[in-house]
Amino acid sequence: MPPHIAAGSNLSFFPIGPFLRRCGAYFIRRSFKGDKLYPQVVKAYLRRLFKEGFTQEFFIEGGRSRSGKLMPPKLGLLGLMIDGLLSEKPMNAVFVPTSISYDKVVEQEDYHNELSGGEKQRESTGGLIRSAGILRERYGRVSVSFDAPIDLMEFMAINNFSDNGSTQSRSQITKALAEQIALGINHASIVTTNALVITALFGAPRRTLSVSILKRSIRRIVAFMRALHGADLRLALGDDTMKSPAIEKALQRLVDEQQVYQEQVGKASYFRMRENAALLLEFHKNGIIHHFIPSAFIANAFLAHMNTPNGCARKESVLDDAEALRGIFALEFIYKAESPRQDLQRALDFLIKEGIFYEQGDLICLTDKRSTLPSVEFASRLIAPLIATYLVVFRKLAKSVEKKPSEKVLIHKLMEELRSAYLSGGIDTAESRNKVTVSNCVHRAKTMGFLRFEEDRVFISNTAKTHEMQTIVAALERCYIRPRASLV
């Protein structure tokens, strides 16, 4: 029996709507705002499904990720489930975090258009007919994997949650459970050869690598992730994921799709990422980037403060800037439920254990500048596009909201600022002009108290926050590390 699947009402159109309904889908609105009755009906329906013992499937992100990263969990539907389970006579349920990974995304052209600033195309019968050609294409492997099930009552007991029926207590349970589910999805995610190849290219100084160095880089990436996760690391093809046949097949597919150049120099083959494909390819890099967070924060902060001759930096300065980055990117990554400093100190301890750094008094230093500096710079380059986007947006935010634009107009203005910064050489990465990241950045500015939204207009919230915003810009400027000429 298929599960009952929560689907957006935008998919309820002929002929796909009736077909999906017969496959287990039930359609709900994406927003319940202003309607008190509708959420109560949905909650009653969900409780009935639980009571009858039906398995349910829902998407904790609320939709498909356009960036490849796991999006912050949406709490609405999960909150209604928790309310339904704990109302009247409490019922138990088991939540199973599930990850779906792709070698190639079917909607990649649509995603590229949206990320570049275009509008999402509404689902329709015409669109369904026009997309029939995808059935003739090959899209590689789709991997579905699961993390450890989460028993609701055990979860509440372990985390000392007691339900008293109040909105506050159930909100706390929902938020904590959503974070645990999201962490479980990341933990269960599959590492594909495609993602490894693309990540290696993104981490290269000029996004160009010979085949031999590319394979060596992939082995190092996998060794790092294995050291971090041990036997829990999930490779799509096991150890074959990083062997030559799989790597060469992935490279050939990228060349055939004109996303990567292949150039021959003597007997050596070089592969170089095409600039206009970076935004598309970043999707796959972002699918495994959580393995490098928060180590990448440490790497950027270290390079920002490193004394070049001796390869050392003050530990507190590094941790301070890494903590600043962690806070700024709160809408970009899923963090473990612990204090930011504790999370970063644990990451630093891991890098010391792995022989990247060693401690010397109040300093942290590279163990061997020649061999470990490239690894640190590799990690920093993985989040460089993100730092560049936030840097430009926070710099231009005050000016961009002077005329109190709508959110849509504001994002369009900021996308233009990013394009200008890239063309003028202010930032180095073409994929920094990413609509999803710009939108996240605007909403992060709102949660930080810099912006407020009123009647579809955006305002500067509080001029007293100007100094705090300048502090953030200064941290981003320090941590935006450009490729070093000596390594090119």
Descriptive overview:
The protein has 488 residues and is an alpha+beta fold. It has four domains: 117 residues, no CATH class; 93 residues, Arc Repressor Mutant, subunit A (Orthogonal Bundle), CATH 1.10.10.2450; 90 residues, Arc Repressor Mutant, subunit A (Orthogonal Bundle), CATH 1.10.10.10; 104 residues, Arc Repressor Mutant, subunit A. 49% of the residues lie in helices and 13% in strands. It has 19 helices and 16 strands. The strands form six sheets. The protein has a three-stranded parallel sheet. A three-stranded antiparallel sheet has the order 8-11-10. A three-stranded antiparallel sheet has the order 12-14-13. Strand 1, helix 1 and strand 2 form a beta-alpha-beta unit. The longest helix is centred in the middle third of the chain and has 22 residues. The protein starts with a strand and ends in a 9-residue tail after the last helix.
Which descriptors would you attach to this protein?
488 residues; three-stranded antiparallel sheet; 16 strands; Arc Repressor Mutant, subunit A; alpha+beta
